[in-house]
Each structure stands twice: as C-alpha cells, then as structure tokens.
TrEMBL record:
<keyword id="KW-0560">Oxidoreductase</keyword>
<dbReference type="InterPro" id="IPR002869">
    <property type="entry name" value="Pyrv_flavodox_OxRed_cen"/>
</dbReference>
<dbReference type="Pfam" id="PF01558">
    <property type="entry name" value="POR"/>
</dbReference>
<keyword id="KW-0670">Pyruvate</keyword>
<feature type="domain" description="Pyruvate/ketoisovalerate oxidoreductase catalytic">
    <location>
        <begin position="11"/>
        <end position="187"/>
    </location>
</feature>
<protein>
    <submittedName>
        <fullName>Indolepyruvate ferredoxin oxidoreductase beta subunit</fullName>
    </submittedName>
</protein>
<dbReference type="GO" id="GO:0016903">
    <property type="term" value="F:oxidoreductase activity, acting on the aldehyde or oxo group of donors"/>
</dbReference>
<dbReference type="InterPro" id="IPR052198">
    <property type="entry name" value="IorB_Oxidoreductase"/>
</dbReference>
<dbReference type="InterPro" id="IPR019752">
    <property type="entry name" value="Pyrv/ketoisovalerate_OxRed_cat"/>
</dbReference>
Length: 191
C-alpha cells in the first residue's frame, strides 16, 4: 500500500524540514520513500510544494493528479491550488492562518474565501490555526511540527520513530518545544 502526501505552503513555513522528517521517519520504519520539493520561489515568500510517496517499493516521487491521499496545506490558498491532486476521499490538513498574496494586498484580487470553504464539501478537512497554537506552545516556528503531528495520525509510522526523527532534525535547544508541538498536533481533535 502506498501513501501519497502533497505538501503546499509559502516560503519560510518550514516545508523542507517537514518533508525531511516525513521521509526519514518512513525510512527508519522500513519503507521505501521518494520525495521532491520545489522551493525556488521561497526566498520571495512565494509558493513552495513537495511530494512524498511512502510504500514497499516506490519508483517515482511524482503524484499523479487524483492520486494523493493527504494534502498538508500550510496556507489556505495552497489547499485550493493543490486540491485537484487529491483522491475523491482525500484528506486536507489545513492551516487556516492566511498569508495574503501581493495581488490581494494590493486589492487587485479578493482572497478566495468561498472556494476554500467549499473544499469541505468534497474532502475530509481538518482545520487548525497552527500559527496561533504554536505561539501558545512557545514559538510560531513550530507550527509546521503541529501540522506534522496531525499528519502522523494518518501514516503507519511508529510514534517513537517520529519523535526520534524530530530530535535528529531540530536544534538541540528546541527539541522539547518541537516534541510538545508534535504531541499537540497528534492529539488535536480538529474542527
């Protein structure tokens, strides 16, 4: 069985770290993994995305349209942008914290609130303001690890493996805060 995960966000939200932790945890638990990230626009706060495919034998990191099991959206517009890659019964983990694109800030376009809301009628959506929850834990920088905790509930990887992989990938001084963020996400009941 293969699990296909699409990640979408805005530069600076920690998508590369999240992808690395998912891949390393899956490898440690004995799965084959392929991934790719597109991050060239990240330096300007532009969109970034990545694919992770986990299974017994994976030949390509690319997820065909309509084949993703889970979409982790670090910004609501990214959920809308990447929703077509999901299966009909796909899951969206949606960080509802908005990072308004330049054209919305310049009032040339409206933020697509209604289209984002309509995703709930097609997909299983778990909403969270990971940014605000992360601030409550200690620092907004762990919002991606909260999303990772929510994602972990849907992937057959041992809890100890997740936590060991997080410890291996975050600065020593922030290990406890990141583990707390992961646990918060894992135990989050959602909206």
């Amino acid at each position: 069985m293969t699990t296909n995960i699409m990640l979408g966000g805005v530069g600076g939200q920690g998508l590369i770290l999240m992808t690395r932790i998912i891949c390393q945890a899956a490898l440690k638990d004995g799965y084959d993994v392929k991934s790719n990230d597109v991050v060239g626009l990240s330096q300007r706060g532009g969109m970034v995305w990545g694919n992770v495919r986990i299974g017994e034998k994976i030949y390509s990191p690319n997820i065909p349209p309509g084949d993703a099991d889970i979409l982790v959206s670090m910004e609501p517009i990214e959920a809308l942008r990447w929703s077509s890659i999901l299966k009909k019964d796909g899951k969206i983990i949606l960080n509802i914290k908005r990072f308004y694109p330049t054209l919305v800030q310049q009032e040339k376009y409206e933020y697509p609130e209604e289209d984002i809301e309509n995703l709930k009628s097609t997909y299983q959506v778990t909403e969270i303001n990971a940014f605000e929850e992360a601030k409550n834990i200690g620092k907004k920088q762990v919002s991606n690890v909260i999303l990772l905790g929510i994602l972990a509930k849907h992937i057959d990887i041992k809890m100890d493996t997740w936590k060991d992989t997080i410890k291996d990938n975050v600065p020593y001084k922030s290990i406890e805060m990141n583990l707390e963020a992961f646990d918060y996400g894992y135990n989050y009941q959602g909206k």
